[in-house]
Write a structure and sequence with these properties.
Blueprint: H1 5-19, E1 23-27, H2 35-50, E2 54-58, H3 80-86
Parallel strand pairs: 1-2
Helix pairs in contact: 1-2
């Protein structure tokens, strides 16, 4: 049986929910999730953080958490050639 990318992501989130690890390192956790899957991820993340857990999330999408978070946004520097193309 083959799972879709979103189904595989949901299985990963389920494993994460039961892991009881205090620190989660997540790389693009909400990629390939539908709206319901993203809501599930948001609830899972909020529950983890409310229980004293910590999460480091690398993503291009917004992290759908209702908790206070420290956010570090990284951007690649614009090179002169790119700046000329953007002008």
């Amino acid at each position: 049986m083959r799972l879709s990318a979103g189904q595989r992501r949901r299985v990963g989130l389920a494993r994460l929910a039961f892991s009881q690890r205090p620190l989660w390192l997540l790389d693009e956790p909400n990629t390939a999730l539908d709206t319901a899957g993203q809501a599930l991820f948001a609830d899972l993340l909020d529950t983890h953080l409310a229980g004293g857990g910590c999460a480091i999330v690398a993503t291009h999408l917004e992290v759908p958490s209702q908790r206070d978070a420290r956010v570090l946004r990284l951007q690649a520097p614009v090179r002169p050639r790119q700046a000329a193309l953007l002008a």
